[in-house]
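Obj: model holo form, ligand = adenosine-5'-[phenylalaninyl-phosphate].
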Amino acid sequence: MEKNFKQVENAFRQKLQEVSEMKELEDIKVQFLGKKGELAQFMKQLKELSNEKKAEIGKGVNRLKVLFQEKIDLHREELKQQDYKQRMQKEWIDVTTDPYQTEPGSWHPVSLVQQKLEDSFMAMGFQVLDGPHIETEYYNFEALNIAAHHPARDMQDTFYFEDGHLLRTHTSPIQIRGMEKLTPPLRIVGPGKVFRCERTDASHDSCFHQFEGMMIDKDISVAHLIYFMKTMLGEIFESDVEVRLRPGYFPFVEPGFELDMRCLLCGGKGCKFCKKVGWIELIGCGMVHPNVLKAGRIDPTVYSGFAFGIGMDRLAMMKYDITDIRPLHGGNLSFTRCFAVQ
Ligand code: FA5
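Output (holo structure tokens):
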């Protein structure tokens, strides 16, 4: 008799495993626990048996009844959960969405400037590359000729992870990644977010956007650099803009320059944004240092090149007459929507 209990239990477990729908589960319940089901068959034999056997079978039937009921209930819950998940995937709705919202989205001013820059440089034969926000010290500093104890690291303090990674302080690591991937002659640009641990004011934020560029070929000079910068600014502002080049120090270029633009917000008279000097520091640039070419596996005795890093937020501010950088990153839609039609 014990063997029969075992057989019924095994048959039940086997069938239950194959159940994938509620209807099949109800059928199994009827087959095993129903009035004419498997367990009821045992009960039918009772009257022909001794008291001792009756007790044994009654115990066995009760054990299976409880077990089957438990397993069926559990399986029913699992099927309900599965069904719920499937329905959620099919019938997904965002209950936080405003159902009456009819206003279209709009591009952020920095995105508008980025698109213009990409179009302008692509038309001049540059390809657009991307790079990670979380960088290694090697790509952000060392490969760019900024050794561990170089004072230039202080100029670009950042946020470090416990494993030694950091939030990139500029888009210049894209230069190294680009040189590793491509062979010269090459023309690349790389836009993106950068991060610095510094105080904010009207023209500085701790998270802002840069647009990196690099051109490597034979016989590249400062004249090429100036040509591309002027062409790019002319396209962004759709007019001639006044720029000045002054010496600037970046360990990854030699010579290095700061390209300033006449402040369009005050016409050069001096304001809060240009800190009363009439000029805005917009672009860091220069001729790529031989050590950087070597880090990019390019022979500096054969090739030379220029590189630049544009502050896209400041460019957007100039273009759209925005006098403070902070609202650019404030997430206020009524502010960013002002630029929708530009
Ligand atoms: C750099 O980041 C260099 N990597 C640029 C470069 C690339 C030089 C290639 C030479 C060759 P700098 O720290 O000056 O340089 O930043 C470049 C531009 O980013 C600045 O001219 C400015 O427009 C913008 N910028 C810098 N700091 C901030 C800030 N805190 N908030 C907003 N814009 C900033």
